[in-house]
Amino acid sequence: MSINRRSLLKAIAAGGALAGCGVLMPRLALAAWAEKAFTAEEQTVAMQELYGSAEHEHTTEVILKAPDIAENGAVVPVTVSTGLENVETISIFVENNPTPLAAEFVLPAGTQAKVSTRIRMGQTSKVTTVVKAGGKLYSAAKEVKVTIGGCGG
Amino acid sequence: MSISRREFARLLGIAGMAGMLPATGLAARRQSEDLYQLPAFGNVRLLHITDCHAQLQPVYFREPNVNLGVGAAAGQPPHLVGEKLLRHFGIAPGSAEAHAFTYLDFNTAAERYGKVGGFAHLKTLVDRLRDEFGREKTLLLDGGDTWQGSGTSYKTRGMDMVEASNLLGVDMMTGHWEFTYRQQEVLNNIDAFHGEFLAHNIFITEDALFEGADEYIFDEDSGRVFKPYSIREMGGARVAVIGQAFPRTKIANPARFIPDWTFDIYDDELQLLVDHIRGSEKVDAVVVLSHNGMDVDLAMAARVSGIDVILGGHTHDGMPKPSVVKNAGGQTLVCNAGSNGKFLGVLDMDVANGRFKGFRYRLLPVFAEQLPADPAMVKLIDQIRAPHLDWLNEELAYADEMLFRRGNFNGTFDQVICDALRERNDAEISLSPGFRWGTSVLEGQKIRMEHVLDQTCLTYPETYVREMSGAELKLILEDVADNIFNPEPYLQSGGDMVRVGGFDYVCDPFQPIGQRISDMTLDNGQPVDAARTYKVSGWATVGSQSDGADIWDVVADYLRDHKVAKIAKLNTPRLKGAAGNTGLADYSA
Q1: Which residues, 6+ apart, have CB-to-CB distance to B331 below 8 Å?
Q2: Alpha carbons B358 and B43: distance in angstroms, whole number
Q3: For testing the chain A interface, which of B458, B483, B542 should be mutated: the one with the most A CBs within 10 Å?
Q4: Fold category of B36-59+115-380 in CATH
Q5: Do A71 and B250 touch (CB under 8 A)?
Q6: In what order do the strands lie in the sheet with B309-312?
Q7: Between chains, do A5 and B221 touch, taking CB under 8 Å as contact?
C-alpha cells in the first residue's frame, strides 16, 4: 500500500477534499439547505420533503453498516455503500430521533458511492438509508440498539 | 479465631462421629481422583480456563438456580440448572461432578468436597495434563477476565495476575475486564505477559489513529489494535487460534478507560479471517478463543463457518459437554468453561491433513483438596498477598446463611450489598450490578474483607446517592432486563439482572422491552409511583465517576456494625411465564 491510513486521514483533513471526495463538502455549500426535511419530526414527512416521495425499494445492493448495539449513542458510526450506478444522493434517517433525517450526502457524478459518518441517537431505533440512483429511490434499514449499559458479567 | 463449620465437621469426624455426617472422606476423594485420569486421545490437547476473576486462592462458588433461556435458547445448554442439568448431561446426583456443576445442596456438598480452584492447585493439574499428553503437544488458553476480581489485582492493576498467568504457563489469552484498567496499563500488562494477547475484534478509532496510535497498534491497515490470531505447530498439526474479546466492553464497562479502542462482534470480518487462515496458512484446525458469552457463541457458530471449536467464556457457564452447532461449512463445537478457577477445560483433538477428525472433551472441576498445591505458585501468591494481608484478612461478620451472587436475580450476597447501601446511605432504594463474578461464603463462616472484595472489587467502585423517579427506575430495570432476556443473542450484553434493595417487582422475561417489568412495590407494601422521586443509592457507574465512598468500605462498615450478616428480606422478583423453564429451580419470591 503506497499511502498508509494515517497519512490518508491527514491528507483528507488538511486538503478538505481529494479527487472524488465531494462527500466531505457540506450540503449547505452546494445547494439550498433542505430545511423542511431536516426539521421534519416524522420520518415519512422528512422523506417526502427530501425526495417528493416516501416510497423506496428495499434492496440488498445498498449496504448499511451500523452496530447492533451502539457503544456510544452520541456518535454511532454508520457506513453506506452501494454498487448501484449513477448515485446522486445518500441520506440517513433515524426513525425515533426528534428529527429523523440525520444526513444527506450529495455525490458528484463518478464518485464512488460509499459514505461514512457518525449519527446521534437518543434511543433504540430503526436506521434507514435511502440511495437515489438514476432517479429512483432504493433503501436498506437496520435496528440499532441504544442502552444505558453497565452490569456486564 | 473461631473454627469454621467445615473444620468443625472434620474434627467431629476425627472424634469418631463420622457416621452422623453425610458420606464423606475416602469415597468422595477416590471418585474425585478418577476425574483427572484421562485416556490419551488424538494429537493435540487444548487446555482452557476462563473468567477466573483473579481468584488466586481456592474458593467456594455456587452455580445458579436461575439461568433462564429465552427464545431459541430456552431448554438448551447453558440454560439448564440443578437436576435438569444433571439429567441432560447424564451426571449422577450426589456425585462430585453434580456438586461442581450445580447449586444442589450446595452448603453441605461444599463442606464435603472442599474449595475449588486456586492457581497453585490449578498449576498442578495443568502440569500433570501437559506432561501426560506431551508438553509440546499442548496449549493453555485463557478466555480472559483474569486481571480483575480481587483486592490484590485491584492494588497491582492486574499485574499480579499477569505474573501468576506467566507461571501457570498461559500461551494465549483474550479479554474483557482486562479493559477496565487504563489503555496504557493494559498495554504494559500485555508487555509483561509471556503469552500472546489475541483479539481480532478490537479496532483503533480513526481519531486515535490520527493522533499517533499507529505507534503501538498491531496493524495499521486493518486498524486492529491486537494480534488477531496465532498459529502453533504441535503434534504434527498446525492449529490456528483466533481471539474474540468481549464485544460489548465499552457498553457494559466504562468507555472512559479505553477511549481509543472500539469493539464489536464483526461476523463478516471473522469469516474473512477464517477463510484467509484456511486458504493460506495450511492449518489443520481453527479455534476461536472467545469472550462472547455462550448464547452469542452459539449464534456466532451458526453464522460463521469454518471454525472447528469455540472455547468460550463470559457468561460463566460451566458446561460438561460441548454444544454442536451446524452451519454452512459443517459444524462447530461450542465449549464454555465456567468461572472463578473452578474448572479446567480439556479438549483432545485428532487433527491432520486440514481435517478435524475427532475429539474428547472434559470440563474438569478443580477440587483443591485433591490436587496438591504447586510450591512455586504458592510462593508467588504469598508474595503477592503479603503486603495486603491485614486488609484482606480482617474478619467483618458471620454469615447467618450461605452468601452467593450467581443467578439471574438477587443472590444473598447481593442482598447484603443492597441492604448496606440503603442503611449506610440512608436511601429508600438501592441498586447493585448483576455481575456474574463473586465467590460464595458458607453458612457460619466468617466474612473477611477478602470476601467483600471478591464481590465488589473493580476499578470504578464509587457509590452514589441520587434522586430518581419511579419512571426512571422502571426504565433502568427494563433496559437491563433487555440486555439479558432479548431473544436475539447479539443484543444481549451478558451479566445478570440488576440487583435491587427496598422494593420488589414482577418480571416477565418473555415480553419485549418496556413490558417485562411491572408491579414495582416498596418493602412497606406501597406501589412505586412513577411520578414520585426516591432516594436511590448504588455503585459501579459506567457513564461517569461517582463521588461516594468505595462500595467495599460501605459494605465492610455495615458488616462490622451488624457482626452477623442476616437477610431480613430477599428482593427477588415474582416471575411470569417462566414455569417449566429448564433454567429455573428452587425459586420462590
Answers
A1: B324, B325
A2: 10
A3: B483
A4: Purple Acid Phosphatase; chain A, domain 2 (3.60.21)
A5: yes
A6: B229-234, B237-244, B285-290, B309-312, B330-336, B323-327
A7: yes
Residue A135 cell numbers, joined: 432517479
SS3 for B436-493 is: CCCCEECCCCEEEHHHHHHHHCCCCCEEEEEEEEHHHHHHHHHHHHHHHHCCCHHHCC
Å between A72 CA and nearest CA of chain B: 8
Chain B hits for A153, Cβ within 8 Å: 252, 293, 314-316, 434-437, 494-496
For residue B13, the model assigns a pLDDT of 39
Give me the phi and psi of A43, to 5 degrees please. -60, -40
What digits encode the pLDDT tens for the residues B264-288?
Answer: 999 999 999 999 999 999 999 999 9
pLDDT one-digit tens code per residue, B57-90: 999 999 999 999 999 999 999 999 999 999 999 9
Q: Which of B475, B476, B451, B469 is nearest to B552 (CA)?
A: B451
CA angle B535, B540, B543 (to 5 degrees): 90
Q: What count of other Cβ atoms lies within 10 Å of the Cβ of residue B303?
A: 15
Least confident of A18-27, A112-121, A142-151, B105-114: A18-27
**CA quadruple B372, B374, B379, B383: dihedral sign:** negative
3-class secondary structure, B334:
strand
pLDDT of residue B19: 35
| pLDDT single digits (tens) B20-43 | 344 444 444 555 557 899 998 999
At A5 the pLDDT is 56
- Whether residue A19 lies within 8 A of chain B, CB to CB, comes out as no
> B327 in helix, strand or coil?
strand
Q: What pTM was estimated for this model as a whole? A: 0.91
**DSSP letter at B5?**
H
DSSP characters over B141-201: EE-S--S-SSHHHHHTTTHHHHHHHHHHT--EE--SGGGGS-HHHHHHHHHH-SSEEB-TT
Structure confidence at residue B390 as a pLDDT band (50, 70, 90): very high
Which stretch of DSSP H or E encloses residue A101? strand A101-106
Model confidence pLDDT, tens digit, residues B154-181: 999 999 999 999 999 999 999 999 999 9
Any chain B CB within 8 A of the CB of A120? Answer: no
- pLDDT of A14-70, one tens digit each? 433 333 334 444 444 445 678 999 999 999 999 999 999 999 999 999 999 999 999
**Before B78, cis peptide (omega within 30)?**
yes
The answer to whether the CB atoms of A150 and B252 lie below 8 A apart is yes
> What are residue B109's phi and psi, to 5 degrees?
-65, -35
Q: Which residues are CB-neighbours of A70 under 8 A, at least 6 positions away? A: A76, A121, A144, A145, A146, A147, B251
CATH of B394-575, one of 3.40.250.10, 3.90.190.20, 3.90.780.10, 3.40.1190.20: 3.90.780.10
Full set of structural domains in chain A with CATH = 27-144 (2.60.40.2470)
Rounded to the nearest angstrom, the minimum Cα separation between A131 and chain B is 23
Domain extent listing, chain B? 36-59+115-380, 394-575
Instruction: For residues B213-226, give the mean pLDDT.
Output: 94
Average pLDDT over residues B122-147: 98
